[in-house]
Amino acid sequence: MKKAMLLLLISITILQVSQAQDKPPFWDDVQTIKHYDQMYAPPANPILFVGSSSIRKWEDMERTFASYDVMNRGIGGAKVNDIIFYLNDIVFPYHPREIVLYVGENDIPDGATPDTVLERTKKLITGIRERLPETPITYISIKPSPSRDKYRQTVQDANSLIKEYLETQHKITWVDVFTPMLTKDGNSRPEIFQSDMLHLNKDGYKIWKELIQPTLIKK
Question: Single GO molecular-function term (predicted)?
Answer without folding.
Answer: phosphatidylcholine lysophospholipase activity
